[in-house]
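Board work, copied verbatim: Nudix hydrolase domain-containing protein
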Amino acid sequence: MSCEERYRQSLEAALGDAGAARVEFDDVAGWAASAGAGPENPLGAEVWVFDADLSRVLLVRNPWRGWVPPGGKVELGETPREAARREVREETGQDVDLHALPAAVAVRSYHPAHPATLGLSYVAIADPAAPLTAEPGQPVAWMSLDHAWESCFPDDLFRMRGHARWLAGFSDSAAAPGAS
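↓ predict structure ↓
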């Protein structure tokens, strides 16, 4: 399979999940309309890993972005969902089950030197007592949703809080639409 075909496969999966996301931020339709050029339009995936009480989220301290959800680039031929699970494993040591539906889709640049890209935010519930294994130079920690943290994406806290409140509206977060 060519590089272009693998990119198309990843892009189709991303746009399918983007359409299923609970919330859309930014100009996703505009990005999608211009994304046909090829692999120079990267895709991103992250996971909002909440504790069962929906009061904390698992974050990674990135050297230039501050505290952010575990995530990264979707590799060619990989679905955003596969990338999200892989990134959580690589950055935190956790093997999580993602809710079936993404929490959000946004268009943003993850690095000052990189173009804006489509980013999907998935959700998982994990046990804070489970051991964490950080990548070198990128500490990982459970952070309270009640307190702000240093991040180049300050809106993320409010977006995660909003999704946690939405999940809390169900008797159990596993009963929420899209929970696995």
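The first strand starts at residue 23 and ends at 24.
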